[in-house]
Amino acid sequence: MSKKKYYLHILMVCTAILYNACSIPAVIHKSENKSTPLTFNNSVDTANSANTSWRNYFNDPFLIALIDTALKNNQELNSMLQEMEIARNEVRARKGEYLPFVGLNGAAGAEKVGRYTSRGASEATTEIKPGKEMPDPLPDYRLAVYASWELDIWSKLRNAKKAAAVRYLSTIEGKNFMVTSLVAEIADGYYELLALDNQLEITRQNIDIQTNALEIVKLQKTAARVTELAVRKFEAEVLNTQSLQYGIQQKIVETENRINFLLGRFPQSIARNDKAFSSFVPGTIHAGLPSQLLSNRPDIKQAELELTAARLDVRVAKAKFYPALGIAASLGYQAFNPSYFFRTPESILYAIAGDMVAPLVNRNAIKAAYYNANAKQIQAVYKYERTLTNAFAEVANQLSRLSNLQKSCELKEKQVQALTDAIVISNDLFRSARANYMEVLMTQRDALESKLDLIETKMQQRHAIVHVYRALGGGWK
């Protein structure tokens, strides 16, 4: 082959490779929308409760001890820590891919070739030294260092390493979001437990009140002022309230066990200060600005990092259309006799080679991976926007809920006071025969329901305080 034809063939191959690289499908870009409303409910407060540590936000020592235990023993959180370790090891693996691979190879063996072959015939006539024939069978001893390296000329390997590093950071934010949710869930359970304790105490107090009223009705019956129907009605009301307390006790057990599960331990009693529920005074909530959610909410940061990693994956998939350039080399000793092994330069072996590989025909698998990477980065954009929109809605909902529950609590406290006074009035009127027993029964029942409703509302208020803290991104710092 003439030099002219040789260079022409090389030119044709390079042209085919360049054409192949230029015929890559276009990537579809979609920019995420990071715009947020300017304020929450027209508030201009720039302070943010999310920057407050959960130890300072929740000032109950019993609750703080529970959260501390959960952060150490919760199985799901510890599993997430292992996910972080896996992601960190993935970064290490990707980093090693764009560095040279170096290894040591040692081998020993023997080979017998047919004498009536070209190689066998040539070896039969070959002498090592005068009077010394080539050994048959022929031993082979080899010790060499070998290396291979793919030149990352298109940044394919570096982008893969960056994507792995970003995903590792994403797992950290995922862990932070889990911590935020765990802290909130334990606080919810703790306040629910305090509310149930108070409901149980009120129920027992009401049983005493109804029992006293029953004794009065029995005396009235003895004096022929009421009938047996009134006695039976009061007895039924006492039994109904006594039954109610066992339902509350069951809820207490289930709530304690739910908290114990989050703490990673078997069922046991939860230490708590049940007096803290009634003396609880809601602190001032600082919502800050909506734009601060971008830095405070771990789930938003996680979605943003996943989007960054998805875009790097597109670059990696695109680089697979380009030629890959690799270098391989080896250096060592090789001989058929150990006594000749380290004789220099006769026993030295070395090799070096470079190759370039590019896909030309049937690139469907590469195209599919490229289209998938592109679709995933668009999917990541939508996920990010959805996470951001949901975060703002959560904050707005909880701030509104907190405000409405505060007003509801004030009205229910007045209702409880009015019905408590009504019990005393109805009893006095009943003794003086100016009210019938049904009015007394209904007043007692309404008073009990209003007290239980008040505790339920206060519990929801405490939950709203917890949820707005979580919605703002607090609890993980």
Could you give a quick summary of the protein structure above?
The protein is an alpha+beta fold. The protein has two domains: 27-98 and 170-321 and 361-471, Outer membrane efflux proteins (OEP) (Up-down Bundle); 102-151 and 324-357, Outer membrane efflux proteins (OEP) (Single Sheet), CATH 2.20.200.10.
Describe the structure.
The protein is α+β, with helices and mostly antiparallel strands. A hairpin with a 2-residue loop joins strand 2 (127-129) and strand 3 (132-133). The chain has helices at 3-22, 54-57, 61-73, 75-97, 118-124, 156-222, 228-262, 293-296, 298-319, 364-431, 437-471, and strands at 101-111, 127-129, 132-133, 138-151, 324-335, 348-357. It starts with a helix and ends in a 6-residue tail after the last helix. The chain contains 11 helices and 6 strands. Helix 3 packs across helix 6, helix 4 (75-97) runs antiparallel to helix 6 (156-222) and helix 6 packs antiparallel against helix 9. The strands form 2 sheets. A 4-stranded antiparallel beta sheet has the order 1-4-5-6, with no helix packed on it. Strands 2-3 form a two-stranded antiparallel ribbon. The chain folds into 2 domains: 27-98 and 170-321 and 361-471, Outer membrane efflux proteins (OEP); 102-151 and 324-357, Outer membrane efflux proteins (OEP) (Single Sheet).
* Biggest sheet record: 4 strands, antiparallel
CATH topology name of the largest domain: Outer membrane efflux proteins (OEP)
Treating each run of at least 4 consecutive H or I residues as one helix, how many helices? 11
Binned, the helix content reads 55-70%
N-end to C-end Cα span: 72 Å
Mean pLDDT: 87
- Contiguous uncertain segments of 5+ residues: none
Question: What would CATH call the architecture of the largest domain?
Answer: Up-down Bundle
Going across the biggest sheet, name each strand in turn.
1-4-5-6
H/E topology pattern: HHHHEHEEEHHHHEEHH
* β-strand amount: 5-15%
Overall strand count: 6
Query: Overall 3D geometry?
Result: elongated
Q: Give the CATH H-level superfamily of the largest domain.
A: Outer membrane efflux proteins (OEP)
